[in-house]
Amino acid sequence: MISSLRIGTFRSCAADRGAMEPAENPLIIGAGPAGLTAAIGLVNGGMSPRIYEASGDIGGLARTPTSGDWRVDPGGHRFFTRSEEISAIWRSLLPADQWISVRRRSAMLVDGHYVRYPLHGGDLVSQLGFRSGMHGMGNFFWSRLRRALRPMDHSASFRDWGIEQFGRHWYELFFDGYVRKTWLTDPDKLASDWANQRIKPISWRVRRHHTNPDAFRYPRRGPGQLWEAAAQYLANFGVVPSLNSQVVAVRHQGSRWTVELQNGETASGDAVFSSMPLRLLIDVLEPAPPQHIREIAANLRHRSLITVAVALRERYDIPYNWVYTPGRNFRVGRIQNYDRWSSELAPKNWNGTYLGLEYFTHPDDDLWVASNESLSDTVQEDLRALGVSGSALEHVMIVRSQFAYPINDPERENSVAEIRDYLRRSHPSLHPMGRNGMHHYDNQDHAMLSAMRSVDQYFGANVDPWQVNTDLEYHESGLMKS
Question: What is the C-alpha R_g of the chain?
Answer without folding.
Answer: 23
